[in-house]
Specification:
By secondary structure, this protein is of the alpha/beta class. It is about 40% helix and about 20% strand. The longest helix is centred in the first third of the chain and has 16 residues. Bound molecules: manganese (II) ion (MN).
């Protein structure tokens, strides 16, 4: 048996950790593992430092158990889909198992299960379960499907192949509620998200002969629309479907006036490389980083644009 599975079996109180501003993959993998811990009759907690989790993800099994205060008396933590330690949003002493699929992962755990060939962390988890003959039940299958669906961009990512569809078939055969996942992850939107979309569409700028789309979202835009941070992402990604656009860039002002920058690429431009020059990370086709408060949106935009233009 795998040493990670052995370590889990020895633990008395496990905390599963989803990253800051969690997505369907980080929550889905934590959800599946949470179900597994309950089956093992372990004491288990689910921690996420972000308080306002995107409501469209709260259909995932056990999501009502998520807490933003770190539990005391845990003897094992498991982080899911966190590329670096600061994505956890918390410091603690106990042993950490790091389960992830980001190429930029810093192997910050005592145990590290990082496979960047996997399209989602739920796929990494699926392989762990399979290799250790751990049965996947319908609740786990739904949560794992959710991660695959979201991280593959609705199965449109170029890494998607027949093997992935075979895995999807297996999860659906087990009882994954794919209709529920499709409705919430792909279609659901809040009124705030709907209104923000209109603002972003109107303010989009194109550069380098239309090959780069840029969105600047101010604090005021967020407040007038009533949207939350992750609501910016769908429009950021949609811009890649414009005929000429290869890279899409978002600069979003946070409440503390720091700037969250997100990059998406549909071409050979490796946005992870660009993000890492700003101490961020992610994947070759989707990455991000944060600029400290005090940086003006306009100067940040110019600086990043210069780097992206060079890569085209
Ligand atoms: Mn992921």
């Amino acid at each position: 048996m795998n040493e990670i599975v052995t370590r889990i079996e020895q633990a008395k109180h496990v905390v599963v950790i989803s990253h800051l501003n969690p997505d369907a993959d980080s929550l889905g993998s934590a959800s599946a593992l949470y179900t597994h811990m309950l089956r093992l009759h372990k004491k288990v907690s689910w921690f996420c430092a972000t308080k306002n989790i995107n409501p469209k993800l709260l259909f995932l099994p056990w999501s009502e158990k998520i807490r933003s205060s770190f539990p005391s008396s845990v003897d094992l933590a498991i982080s899911l889909d966190c590329g670096s330690r600061d994505r956890l949003g918390i410091d603690f002493e106990c042993d950490l198992i790091n389960i992830d699929h980001h190429a930029s992962n810093e192997n910050f755990g005592k145990y590290n299960l990082v496979d960047f060939k996997c399209i989602s962390t739920t796929e990494v988890l699926y392989n762990l379960f399979k290799e250790n003959t751990i049965r996947i039940n319908p609740k786990m299958a739904t949560a794992m499907y959710a991660g695959l669906l979201d991280d593959s961009g609705g199965f449109l990512d170029e890494k998607v192949d027949g093997t992935l569809f075979a895995l999807v078939k297996e999860l659906i055969d087990i009882g994954a509620d794919y209709k529920l996942c499709n409705r919430y992850i792909m279609k659901y939107q809040s009124l705030g998200a709907f209104r923000l979309k209109a603002i972003m569409h109107k303010n989009m700028m194109l550069f380098c002969d239309g090959r780069i789309a840029v969105f600047c979202v101010t604090n005021e835009d967020m407040q007038t629309s009533g949207a939350i941070g992750s609501d910016c992402e769908s429009t950021l990604e949609e811009a890649l479907w414009l005929p000429t656009v290869e890279v899409s860039l978002l600069l979003k002002q946070n409440r503390d006036l720091s700037i969250k920058c997100s990059l998406r690429s549909s071409s050979k431009v490796d946005v992870n490389a660009i993000a890492s020059t700003f101490l961020g990370g992610g994947h070759a086709n989707r990455a991000g980083f944060t600029l400290e408060s005090g940086t003006a949106l306009e100067s940040a935009k110019e600086k990043i644009l210069k780097l992206v233009c060079k890569e085209l």
